[in-house]
Amino acid sequence: MRQFLLPFVLLAAGCAAPPQVPPAAPAPSAPAAPFEAWKITASHLEVRVYRDGPMQKLGHNHLIASDALEGVIQMREPLTRSGFDLRLPLESLTVDDAEARSRAGGDFAGPVPPKDREATRRNMLGDAVLDAARQAVLRLTADEISGKPGAYQARVRIAMRGEQRVVAAPLSVDIEGDRLSAQASLRLTHADIGLVPFTVALGALRVRDDFEIDIRLEARRGS
Predict the structure, then answer these.
(1) pLDDT tens, 64-104?
(2) In sequence order, which residues have a C-beta less than 8 Å from that of residue 187 and are 6 or more positions away?
(3) Where are the domains of the chain?
(4) Which one of 35, 39, 136, 211 has the largest count of C-beta atoms within 10 Å of its C-beta?
(5) Is the sign of the CA dihedral 175, 68, 211, 136 positive or negative?
(6) Is the peptide bond before 78 cis (omega within 30 degrees of 0)?
């Protein structure tokens, strides 16, 4: 009974609870500075993946490549206020193309049998690695660009497999008139992008944890 009488007692004593004040609305964020769109006109992505494990001689180092990276560079002044939004259809990825391996030489000089190339690509696009059926396009977005000419660095948000990860990528950028060329070379681990190295035979043959990425882009003003 006391539970039902208490509100009336407080009201009679003039001690009613103060009215609820709604929280202030958050201040609107400042609009992004205007940018000039430079469209990607040519691209090349190359990923070098290495074999590992006690039985590694039975496997291959793999060269994964694509020329289908597309998107827009959002140019601002200074360049450190710029950004980019790039997309890569995962179906465009090739594995161990004979000419590409020949050009790379070194650890990739030898050819890979077609059946091994097909199996590697199938495993790579499958749900255990890139899961292309779930998200068919990999997206690269610049969260931030810092540094100075000759030593830029981008914080790149990688969206794939329905997840997002952020990595740091050193950039070189060259602008001549209406043309821009850029290159990024970096070494990552599978954990950096939320992957687990592919293994067979209880790990006796596996993919090495670290791998290398090279990206080259060309863009034109107002394309």
Answers:
(1) 999 999 999 999 999 999 999 999 999 999 999 999 999 99
(2) 210, 211, 212, 213
(3) 34-221
(4) 211
(5) positive
(6) yes
